[in-house]
Amino acid sequence: MNRKTLVLPAVMGLLAPVLAACGGSGGGAQGDDAIVVGTTDRFAASKEAPAPLDPAYAYDNAPWNVLRQTIQTLMTMPDGGGDPEPEAAEKCGFTDTGSERYACTLREGLKFANGDPVTASDVKFSIDRALRLKADSGVFALLSTIDTVETRGDREVIFHLKTADATFPFKLSTPVAGIVNPDDYDKNRLRDGFSVDGSGPYTLDAKVKNDEIVKAVFTKNPHYKGQLDVKNDKVELRYFGSSSAMGTALQKGDISMMARTMSPEQIKKLQNDKSTDINLIEQPGLEIRYLGFNTNAPQVKTRAVRQAVAQVINRGEIVSKVYGTGADPLYSMVPASLTGHSNSFFNEYGNPSTDKAAALLAKANITTPVKVTLHYTTDHYGPATKDEFELLQKQLNDSGLFDADIKGEKWTTYRPKEQKGEYGIFGMGWFPDFPDADNYLAPFLDKNNTINSPYVNKEIRDDLIPQSRREADRLSASKSIEEIQTIVAQDVPLLPVWQGNQYVAARSDITGAERALNSSATLQLWELGHGVRS
């Protein structure tokens, strides 16, 4: 492997390869050979989640990575970060000074993959449908500032907002705002199963076994018109049950690239092995991990208990012993690389201290040890999650203030139980819908939040979130954003733990791997091509 160290500017969304691919020139596909990519980001259809690939329902990184290849949005996030740019739209922008009226003009000649024209009425149908269905995933809340959608002719769409929302262009780049064909999607019900029809760069052929997707074959859409430069004709996304199985497939040449999720051991091995023809690419990421608290649950209903947990946990130990160079301690729900970040939890609690935690509990007349159970998912965030929670358990128990147990469960049952409020403390991860501090706060603290949290702070909901969204200059929104982070650190409905880097491993005859995953963990399969083995 060739190591090339880059100086990383502190901007969000920038792809900065630490290890550059050594493939040859040229990025186009050679013949009809599919580029095969491995992932452990599996998802299934179930009674609780029967429509995993409906844009009006999907709200997780794995199904979004399928939708972003197939469903076109008005806006898209550019390679390298920055403000969103037109995709299905030819142009978009606010037409007033108050950020309450947003107009888009569609590109001429847009077509769905089946050849049907894409019109402004299809955009209105898609947005109205997501808002009407109000899926229990909570994804519709991304569009909650929309009042009405107006169309003028076949190409002009006007969004009238209930309140100022400078983040609205970002939201139009997310799959929930994807354009679907009314002939394929019922306005009154979700579309069950794994079929997707859109106007994006690829069409999808999903291979399903036992209600779980095992292979997604993306074929270049000949009708696609947008700003993306599709560098291949076909990509196969293959789903693995473990990172070790995925790594073995890469070593054998059964796949050409692997993305999420590699184990810390795999990453370390690839970093140190200079003889292999597999290149490891490291990029700054915006993934975070956090503990959520059901503030109605008896074991953590008292704020002092949550504060004591925050005072005891040692993020540095978790990072060094479990994740190594793949993560950094995080002291706010907002990643350190985003505008508006504040080290609110460090400001509130400082270094881990059993004595300070004991004082918090004593002041609230809490009898110790406090019995708690920490829940985590065994198969969604990578193999190191179990090690992380075992260490969290040890830290709490070693303090003598807690009698902590841990319990792991598969994602297909874990997520519905979390939504129903069955867990007092639960581990979750977050990949941003868009790279703005608002998206690390509002989805958990606003109405219809994604974790169905019962925690309500009226100052945050009624004043601070709306204030931050009125600021078109996101630096000017920092004051409101920082105030929200301070309140979260004091009340502890959420407890940030770490922020992760991202890794892609690809064989040396694949080009574009350094652009195949952006900082929000969005797969950009159109960037991959066949090169020449070095």
From TrEMBL:
Gene3D superfamilies: Dipeptide-binding Protein, Domain 1, Dipeptide-binding Protein, Domain 3, Periplasmic binding protein-like II
Keywords, ordered alphabetically: Signal, Transport
Record's keyword annotation contains S-adenosyl-L-methionine: no
Signal peptide residues on this chain, from the entry's feature table: 1-20
Key word Signal present: yes
A Gene Ontology term for the protein's cellular component: periplasmic space
GO biological process, one term: peptide transport
PROSITE patterns per record: PROKAR_LIPOPROTEIN (PS51257)
Cellular compartment(s): Cell envelope
GO terms, molecular function: peptide transmembrane transporter activity
Domain Solute-binding protein family positions: 84-450
Family classification: Belongs to the bacterial solute-binding protein 5 family.
Protein name as it appears in the record: Peptide-binding protein
Biological classification of the source: Bacteria, Bacillati, Actinomycetota, Actinomycetes, Kitasatosporales
